[in-house]
Amino acid sequence: MIDLFPAVRSALQHVSSIAWLLIYTVQEMGDHMLRRRRLPFRPSIFFEQADRTGVGSVPLVALVSFFLGLTMALLTGHVLAPYGQETLVPAAVAIGFTRELGPLITGIMVAARVGAAFTAELGTMVVAEEVEAIEAMGLGPLRLLVSPRVLAAFLLMPCLSVVSNMMALSGGALISRWAFDIPMQGFWQSSLENLFIRDIVAGVLKSFLFGLLIGLIACYKGLTVRGGAAGVGTATTSSVVTAITTVIGFDTVFNIVLVALFPD
């Protein structure tokens, strides 16, 4: 019989450690702002991380979402065609991506691309004892290293989700025009008519949550690297796997809560 208690204990320890990382980071930022009355980090540092997280991820998110939207519309249309319900394809693509697939796919790609970079950078700094040097200088490694990265992931994830949704709908509109004779203008109109405010709000809230989780997990894995260069590689792999698993898990919990609160 497999003993699950060590795995559960380890998972709970990781969750508590990540939660404390968030608390300490916010506390360090708040103390600095109250004492110095200025931003906890230079704006240039934040914009650099925002450029990497947001602008740098746009081509990947757009390309993958376009093909996924195209595929979803094609398969959905072929399932509905025998019943003469091809007109439901725009609604299926719009609701599916705005509420579910857009934030989820974006979170997975950001975790793989940006989260791995965050972990590798911070892990290399830990191995090279640069983080200890920052601590010795009294500069606050959490506000300098963690806060701009987490804030960039938190704020840019909704923007990337919008890109994902728009590209998925573009792919769906293109394939629907070719395969099911649905005009592109009619596709977009039907998509907007079938979207509800709660679908958009759910997607935006998921995006913020996923961005926060990815940033925290990546920074935590980077700051807890052990074992030199090999440890950096192990931590990077663990960061990607943990972030993707966490995003999918929280997405499931979010959907259960949302259906329970808004069953109709």
From TrEMBL:
The keyword Secreted does not apply. InterPro entries: Permease_MalE. One of its GO terms (molecular function) is phospholipid transporter activity. The chain crosses the membrane at residues 55-81, 149-180, 200-220, 240-262. Pfam families: MlaE. Keywords: Membrane, Transmembrane, Transmembrane helix. One of its GO terms (cellular component) is ATP-binding cassette (ABC) transporter complex. This is ABC transporter permease. It comes from Chthoniobacter flavus Ellin428.
